[in-house]
Amino acid sequence: MRSLQTPRIPSATFALGMLLLWACAAKADARLDGTKPAQWRVTWTEEPSTKATVSWSTAAQGDSHTLRFREKEGDDEFSVQLAESGRYTGGDFELYYHHARLTDLKPATAYEIQMVSDTNESPIFYFVTAPATDREFSILHGGDSRSDQDARRRVNIMISEMVAQSHDNEILSDDILALAHGGDYIVSGNRMDLWSTWLSDHELTATPDGRLLPIIPARGNHDKGKPFNEVFGFPEDDLNYYSLSIGSQVKFITLNSETSTAGDQAKWLANELSQTRKSHRWLLVQYHRPVYPAVKTPHTALKSWVPLFERFNVDLVCEADGHVIKRTLPIRDGKPDETGVVYIGEGGLGVPQRSPKTDRWFVQSPGMADKGNHVFVLTFRKNVLEGKCVLEGGKLRDEFTRNARNGL
């Protein structure tokens, strides 16, 4: 089977390739000008087989904002969905958001989309809904895309390459369907000028044929303020914890480590894990602040969430925040246990990397710790979950497997 990672190629060829990619990248940055659509993105926060939020930005308020959409392989006329619009908060930076909420979509179906603001039209893009059946596929996970814009753009270009390559054959398990982002998109979540730069850079994740990769967003400690909900189309007062079924056998739960990890969120998590473990083969969780960190001190979720992870046998936990690479050995009751939970992270989508504390017991073999810009590729097979950590430039830094627990 062809590897999901970007191929490791000689340095001279790589340098030439990067120059060509940067040339393409310059064309990918849509200029913010009046009501010209820009900063396009697709977000999954509920029922991704039938729903999606398509969003874009304009520099001017405008009067009319709609999304045209239709099945990519069909010959139907475009349908039209009105967008919810408003001005982003966060300083004096004037920018407007537009969210078209699509429902009643067909699972595992490509949809062409075109954003229209007043008389200005975006290029035609497409995205693909999640499957509703039990099939093999992959997703990406990473976090911390703040602070180093050049690195962020390079990683985004690599993601575009990886997504395009993953769909360039008939092997379903290769197909990358979404990017789960573990938070800390920018340095200061209340500064809309920084969000705007991040949104423009995110355009670089689109593939050359116009495929938009859906985001599954988590809130980080640098993402405080209203803009986070405005960027990703959450309701104004949403608490940003939710769950998705991707296919019939993968449950992906996003938690919010920036609010109380006990109380209502812990009760919701206990109920969600209880119901999910009975019905899904794979059970994953993402959030920002790590409970078994390779650099920092453990977050409060160590007490409020970890006992639930272990009680309901979560297969994999995805963390961020530390600015390192780590994979723990399996952990149960605060010690190594082959039946325990594995934690990966901790953020390398465009942030200066720290040196991990490699003497910590939970990153000893068969765990690991390192540093470098990176993204994880998670591949869901019927009996095995395969993970790969891919460094900027395409080098495979780590790989691991988790066996299915419940035999579904």
From TrEMBL:
CDD domains per UniProt: FN3
Keywords, sorted A to Z: Signal
Any Pfam family hit: Metallophos
Residues of the signal peptide: 1-28
Record domain Purple acid phosphatase N-terminal: where: 37-129
Coiled coil: none
Name this protein carries in UniProt: PhoD-like phosphatase
